[in-house]
Amino acid sequence: xxxxxxxKSHEHDGRIHPAAALDYLPEPRLQEIQLRRLRAxxxxxxxxxxxxxxxxxxxxxxxxxxxxxxxxxxxxxxxxLDLRDTYPxxxxxxxxxxxxxxxxxSGTTGKPIVVAYTAEDLATWTSAMVRTLTCxxxxxxxxxxxxxxxxLFTGGLGAHYGAESLGATVIPVSGGNTERxxxxxxxxxxxxxxxxxxxxxxxxxxxxxxxxxxxxLPLRVGVxxxxxxxxxxxxxIEQEAGIRAFDIYGLSEITGPGVASECESQDxxxxxxxxxxxxxxxxxxxxxxxxGAEGELVLTTLSKQAMPMIRYRxxxxxxxxxxxxxxxxxxxxxxxxxxxxxxxxxxxxxxxYPSQIEAALLExxxxxxxxQLVLLCEEGLDQLVVEVEVTPEVFSDKVRALESLQxxxxxxxxxxxxxxxxxxxxxxxxxxxxxxxxKRVVDRRSS
Length: 447
Ligand code: DLL
What we know:
- By secondary structure, this protein is α/β, with parallel strands linked by helices.
- It has helices at 27-48, 50-58, 80-85, 119-135, 154-166, 178-187, 197-209, 231-241, 354-362, 392-395, 399-417; strands at 99-105, 113-118, 143-146, 169-171, 192-195, 221-225, 244-251, 256-262, 269-271, 276-281, 295-301, 312-318, 320-321, 333-334, 339-340, 345-347, 350-352, 367-378, 381-390, 422-426, 441-443.
- The chain folds into 2 domains: 1-341, ANL, N-terminal domain (Rossmann fold), CATH 3.40.50; 345-443, ANL, C-terminal domain (GMP Synthetase, Chain A, domain 3, 2-Layer Sandwich), CATH 3.30.300.
- The protein starts with 26 loop residues before the first helix and ends with a strand.
């Protein structure tokens, strides 16, 4: 039986969650809060985290030297390597008896990194997620299908507690079991889905296969993050599902999802900077860059107890957007993260990022947003082959039509990245689907 459809355009009834009011603080008040919290965080880390204290001492710094927000630049940077070197608990500033939750992020190599939360940290995280979901236009009236993975990954539980605290109805379905996801979406009258954008594309596709067009359902919002995705991908999703798709950003080391979120303006992501202080550094020189300049995002947690992170190098490349957002929120915005400093491929001397390829592929009609970059080694030279699925209609076309599409894609990529790469059009469904973060790069150089 179908639940009564609620209207697609869904009005707030004016009930704003108290946490969301923090997005509108006047700037002087915000800075006062930031400075007070920064000083407390530095003192806490100095007192309880050996690595941080030693690095401060090497610089001849003491917590009392941090007098203004500008003094942040004097503090030592922290990297993922520091987390690995102190595995598992070496950066904790609270005794385990005060830690109520651990998460871990596997990354691509070696040991996972472990992150810890006190009860207060969980409350902070939840309130940041309430603000995220409010930014995406959700309220207590929404029925939220949470398809982020539950477990050590922070996406599932982060979105779960945020949506519950907002007062929404949460369906903790987790990732996977695509058939059941579609059934739930339809039968429960789901109005919002939280998932990675690539998994949502898979859901849309599966819906189509079994004759369900998401545009006919009450679904109206997608809360998408955990991996890079382009504006081209957003347009495809919004059009094909009849929803508004928002980008949310976060990382385990800082808290999980809930660090920054797009709002109704879809013009950059508001950073919840009373808790997570952003800086942009030149990735090579580590010098601070001005607003508007692109560089590495470095974040400092201002409220975390169990595991304060001071000037953590995220490796994510973005910029802070000068000026105020049309939505009225006062917290600053960052551009969406299109790439990481470590996901750059160097092919025949040219720097290539997967997101540039995605943007070029999505400009052409006839392709599906499923693609993979395959690295090969031919005659001692690295080669990149872009495999992209084509629509069933195109796939059954004449060879000449396929060749022409292949040529257009190859030219489009060459225009975007300045490099001629191989393009291989593949059958629908031939690229592996992921329930979480998509794997865009496959390295076949040694096989
Ligand atoms: O991916 C937390 C998260 C869960 C964010 C759900 C959003 C939604 P990690 O597994 O630690 O945490 O991975 C963090 O993922 O440094 C970025 O490189 C990437 N990332 C996260 N959100 C975005 C985004 C979660 N919106 C790493 N756009 C980060 C681009 C993103 N990259």
